[in-house]
Design a protein that fits this description.
The protein has about 325 residues and is α/β, with parallel strands linked by helices. It has a domain of about 200 residues: NAD(P)-binding Rossmann-like Domain (Rossmann fold), CATH 3.40.50. The protein is about 40% helix and about 15% strand. The chain is built from eleven helices and 13 strands. The strands form three sheets. Strands 3-2-1-4-5-6-10 form a seven-stranded parallel sheet, sandwiched between helices. Strand 1, helix 1 and strand 2 form a beta-alpha-beta unit. The longest helix has 20 residues. It is globular and about 55 Å long. The relative contact order is 0.13.
Length: about 325
Amino acid sequence: MKKVFITGASGFIGTHLATLLAKDSQVFALYRNDHPDIPNVTWIKGDLLDNKTYQHELSKCKFAIHCAGMSAYHKKYYDQMNRVNIDGTAAFIEAAQQSSKLQKMIYISSVVTLGVSEKPTPITEDDRTDKLLNFGYIQSKKRAEDLIYNAIQNHKLPAVIIHPSAVYGPTDVLKPARSTQLKIMKGKVPFYSKGGLCVVHIEDLCNGILLALEKGQIGENYILGGENISLKTFFKELSFYQKSHASLIPSAFIKLLGRFGQTLDKIKVPFPFLWEQAKLATVYHWYDSQKAQKDLGYKYRSAHLALRSSLDWAKENKHLEA
């Protein structure tokens, strides 16, 4: 039975991933405060930034998955996000390099480090660029990736980088960052803009990560995405039970609202969304998973099935009632 160390196992992706891993692996999972109850997982209380708190357990493992991360749109969270995404990754790399048994490490990044597009054109791994939107989350994940690549090239870190697209499935609405998703499910978001998403089911993503653990080539990066759909289709799928009548409005108006929200934020007046959210809502987050399909044997289900599983879980667990 292989031994796997995982960070971020208390989060949405990490919980599903640890549950899958624990079926046939000995899993050591790092947590800071609370953690879910997952059978056959050994929980290690520690601090990602202080690798002395988990070095011993990591040193027992041949495989490691660095899934911990933080996303935020407001600048007041940037320092904390950088500590988690950048400094936390640096600390984990240091610990991994000191683990003589480690054969492969998976770093869970994001498709946003590959860029976004104003046009409905899927992005591939070859499109990785330094010309990214100057937004906190994107830049923090890009800097963390740079640390991984540097360690691969200069210190022989046996790492593989994974770029998940927009992940949906059971329990996703519990994430604080998914408040807008829940509003769409309830039919409470009256408009959308041009743009689109690459939707992947959480189970398909986790299966893909396990394939990367088995077959991924050191130094390579893989997009683990799904079906590319328009925001119009996204709204239609998520609001199935509420029959939402959301309307298409010009992207310029969405951006104007974002600028307005940014101005109000300066005087501490709350507004539903800020500039970063507005900008990201008006572009195409479309990605191509062919490399992972070819090299890893990766497969994914339709966006309809992914989104319906998210919606049905929310309905069954009474998150659509309020």
